[in-house]
Amino acid sequence: MEKDNVNSLMYEEEELRDAVVVDREGYVCGRVANFTVEPDQIMVNLCEYDTKTVKTPNEEELVQKLTKLMPQKGLFHRETSIEQFYDWIREMLHLSNREPVTLEHLVEFAKVKNVDVPYQTNEFKVKIEKGSIKWSCVDKIGVAELGKCIFLNEAVEAKKRGIALSEKVDYKATKYLTGTMVIDSEAKIVGSALKFLVGDLPGLLINVERLEKIEQLDAKAMTDTLVPSMFKDSSQLLNRVKNDLNRKVVTDDDLRIWARKNKINAPSKIVERKEILMELRVDWNNIAKIGDIVILKEPIDALNEKLLLGPNEINLIPKTDMRKRP
């Protein structure tokens, strides 16, 4: 790939944070954690993220279990309110009326009463350091809707893994290609590989994608604010919404409407999802490298135009086009 003058472009450090760093053979070195600026050089510090799972007490289910232990008062059974439940816990643990009842208090009380504490599994990301590379190794920087990518002029990761270097791009079956990130010659993330194409000149079918951002109700956050502060559990909350709105099934839109009618804050979140704009057939001789990701030999716009004007049969296929494909 022809080297671009990255020194002619300047970025704030935060702009490049979390950018995927790819060596010239297509192997991922990691992601940008931060930068170290020294008198005579700039170092790019790398990291990667690992998903860990941890078990934590399920507060909602624990409240349900402990509520059943409360003594019933009077001749007629009435549904226990969450305020009554917490007052009872304070009394049992000899807490002051103003002291909030925490999850730790509930677990402590459950152990005293020999009640099995229900657990739930939560996932979280752990950052792992991956070393550093010199800024002089950077060849191209691509900032696109799908993410940020830094392309290196050296085979840093390939050498680290002991992978033999070759100018030839070996064929790979669909099962090894599907879902692989695709970047163009300018380090722009353009989409993902879909499948291997068989022909006199083999090729690769890729999904050209865009990132769609949608604001929607954060149903979990809303439930967490209402359970168990106002409702004993999520089932009680949903039953209330069903009754108030005369619904058989409650959707996120129903929750939003119900919250608005009751003047309850409905927290929202931005959800990002990939949208497939089109499918693009790329001849194998237009592929520069295949490692952890696929690198194209040209910018995506130039390649798209070249393929459309070329002799190949339909190279660009709108996602809605249901014509037969190889």
How many distinct helices? 10
CATH topology of the domain at 13-55 and 123-165: SH3 type barrels
Large-scale geometry: elongated
CATH class of the domain at 13-55 and 123-165: Mainly Beta
Rg from alpha-carbon coordinates: 28 Å
Strand order, largest beta sheet: 11-12-7-8-9-10-13
H/E series, N to C? Answer: HEEEHHHEEEHHEEEHHHEEEHE
**What's the story with the biggest beta sheet?**
7 strands, mixed
Return the structural class: alpha+beta
Q: How many E-type strands? A: 13
Distance between the termini: 30 Å
- Which consecutive residue ranges, at least 5 long each, have pLDDT under 50? 1-5, 310-326
Mean pLDDT rating:
86
Write the CATH architecture name of the domain at 13-55 and 123-165: Roll
Please give the share of residues in helix: 25-40%
Can you characterise this structure?
There is one protein chain. The chain is an alpha+beta fold and 326 residues long. Among the domains are: 86 residues, SH3 type barrels (Roll); 59 residues; 48 residues, no CATH class. 26% of the residues lie in helices and 34% in strands. α2 packs across α4. It is elongated.
Topology, pairings included?
Blueprint: H1 13-16, E1 20-22, E2 28-37, E3 42-57, H2 59-67, H3 82-93, H4 103-112, E4 119-134, E5 138-144, E6 147-152, H5 156-161, H6 174-177, E7 181-183, E8 189-197, E9 203-217, H7 219-226, H8 234-245, H9 252-261, E10 268-283, E11 287-290, E12 294-296, H10 300-309, E13 316-318
Parallel strand pairs: 1-6, 7-12
Antiparallel strand pairs: 1-2, 2-3, 3-4, 5-6, 7-8, 8-9, 9-10, 10-13, 11-12
